[in-house]
Amino acid sequence: MLQKLNQSASDEAGQQVEVWDLPIRLFHWAFACLTLAALLTGFYAPEWWLDRHLLIGAGLGGLLVFRIVWGFAGGRFARFSSFAYSPRALFTHLRRMLSGAPEHHLGHNPAGAMMVFALLLMVALMGISGLLALGGVEKEGPLAWLVDFESGWLSLRLHRFGAYLIAAMLVLHVAGVILQSRLEGQNLARAMITGRKRLLNEHLPPRIHKQLSRTDVAARNRSSVRPGRALAFALFLILTLAAFLEALSGLPVRGARALTMPASFRSECGDCHMAYHPALLPAASWRAIMDGLEDHFGEDATLDEAIRAEIERALIANSAETWDTKASHFFRVVDPAEPKRITRTPGWRARHAAIPAKVFKQKSIASKSNCGACHRDARRGTFADRHISIPAPRPGKEIAKASSSNSAKERTK
Amino acid sequence: MTKTSLLTTATALLMAIALDTAQAGPAQKAVLEHFAALAKNADTGFQGFSAERGKKLFFDQHSGGKPETPSCTTCHGTDPTKSGRTRAGKEIKPMALSRTPERFSDLKKVEKWFRRNCRNVMGRECTPLEKGDFITFMANQ
Question: A263, A286, A401, B5: which could join A315 in a potential S-S bond, CB 3.0 to 4.6 Å?
Fold first, then answer.
């Protein structure tokens, strides 16, 4: 392709010139697809798709690193220096555009350039806020050692806000491309596929090449270094960054620890229900539960005093107040009318409101108190989104036979 | 204890054990002996445990207990050879000794569960006779 460009020495309008090099075109569409995928999985996918959302985010991170390298080493029009316009240039451009006498740029025009920088910056910020949220709320990823829950929660809200902002920017970006395509009389989206634009008489060369003729610019649309080297360098940076983040992920998590409970906890509590992680209720609730075992949610669950006291001590020592995990924050505020019930806490109810009752009734779950049926990490008390797996309800077949075992017919068997 | 009362106790014990407790191992037999002695203490006319009575106890709808649990079968299910399920959704291994051979071997555990579950279902503790009947029934299953 470069050969062809070198041949095109004449300065005739109407000529096709390569503006977007292949790496930048691949980058553009990969970045667009992954950004859309990140928005879709973020807004619409269920919690347990977080894995995929993170994978998409990692892909965007890799693309960003490549784009930054290519912004210094890529083709003329890919280089940041070729479209780093001053605010004044942007203002002039917008004013002329609105007054119906637009400037035409072979590469990015000032408005488009602004969008490129803004989108790259926003996606980078989304990566950072996403990792902060992942670390603080989910207690996972490279920043889990650093971020507390409150900061993570705030980051999550900023991450969500940023997603709306990016969605709006994408709409603006597409609108800008359509508008500029009309003004120039050529399909600019197609130019991002073929790489070529038709040269117009009105086309201004990129800012830094004013001294060159337009075809000179086109002919020199090649990397400042050998593209293979730049790509290898980008790959090296990406792998280094990935290894670094992976190493950080191995650090001890902030506000969470391995739980140590007396053996009696698992055997006594765990005989009838899952041995709930002590972080799932505040100390006051545990005290109330252990002081009322004669009527334990409608059943007698009395214990020898020594064992009862031992379990109570361990529960209180590890109650919600002593953790910084998502679950401990959601459940430390209880329903004053039912302080013993995890499933009555506002946090629990808000997070399970969308799940139909029949899902809980199916045989494999049986009860809302059977956390482990859907939360594979329930015993660890982390309740990470990634580890949710809700069994699909199969109406008519899987629904538990609610207390049909009491029927008189079967009694006489 | 007089010689005669000793003899009757021994007879009762023998009867209790001679009864078809095919699945019962030494640990379960010791638990049964324990309850037989207590039953004998409570009623000198004790004639040994009955799997039939144990079966009735297991399947009957009782009153006086907690409304959520009117019968053993509420949680244990209607087939002792199959798993039951607690109200919280946890599996309970089959009650039948043929399926869960380690059942009724630890007296402390046996007493804990009879205490809790008899209160739950009947609103009172079970008598040694009822406990022995129950275990005898399950040893037959």
Answer: A286
In this prediction the pTM is: 0.81
Q: Are A215 and A17 in contact (CB under 8 A)?
A: yes
CATH number of A130's domain: 1.20.950.20
Note the ipTM here: 0.76
Facing residue for A298 by CB, picked from B60, B66, B71: B66
Q: Which of A195, A214, A249 is the last residue of a domain?
A: A249
Tell me the residue range of the domain where A361 lies. 263-411
Which residues on B lie below 8 Å from A271 (Cβ)? 90
Give the Cα separation of A21 and A2 in Å (integer). 10
Q: Which residues of A touch B86 (CB under 8 A)?
A: 272-273
Q: Tell which of A249, A284, A312 closes a domain.
A: A249
**Cβ contacts of B74 on chain A, cutoff 8 Å:** 403, 405-406
Distance CA B140, CA B19 (A): 10
Query: Are residues A101 and A225 part of one domain?
Result: yes
Chain B residues touching A369 at Cβ < 8 A: 88-89
For position A376, what pLDDT does the model report? 92
Helix/strand/coil for A105:
strand
CATH number reported for the structural domain that contains residue B42 in this entry: 1.10.760.10
Say yes or no: A236 and A325 in one domain: no
- Residue A388, strand partner residues: A375
CA distance A193 to A28: 9
Residues A17 and A156 in one domain: yes
B21: containing domain: 3-140
Taking CB atoms and an 8 Å cutoff, what residues of chain A touch B72? Answer: none
State the smallest CA–CA distance between residue B108 and chain A in angstroms.
Answer: 10
Residue A412 pLDDT: 35
**What tens digit of pLDDT does each residue of B49-71 get?**
999 999 999 999 998 888 889 99
Rounded to the nearest angstrom, the minimum Cα separation between B86 and chain A is 6
**Distance (Å, whole) CA A268 – CA A307:** 9
Between CA A62 and CA A56 the distance in angstroms is 10
Distance between B4 CA and the closest CA of chain A, angstroms: 38
pLDDT digits (tens, 9 = 90+) for B81-113: 999 988 888 889 999 999 999 999 999 999 999
Q: What percent of chain A has pLDDT over 70?
A: 86
Chain A residue closest in CA terms to B67: A298
pLDDT (average), residues B118-140: 94
- Closest CA–CA distance from residue A252 to any residue of chain B (Å): 33
Question: Closest chain B residue to A402 measured between Cα atoms?
Answer: B74
| Cβ–Cβ below 8 Å for A299 and B68 | yes
Asked if the structure places residue A31 within a domain, the reply is yes
Interface of A with B (CB under 8 A): 270-274, 295, 297-303, 365-367, 369-370, 373, 403, 405-406, 408, 410-413
Residue B38, CB-side half-sphere exposure with 13 Å CA sphere: 15
B27 half-sphere exposure, CB direction, 13 A CA radius: 11
Q: What is the pLDDT of residues A213-225, one digit of tens each?
A: 555 555 556 656 6
Residue A349, number of CB atoms within 10 A of its CB: 11
8 A C-beta contact, residue A20 and residue A192: yes
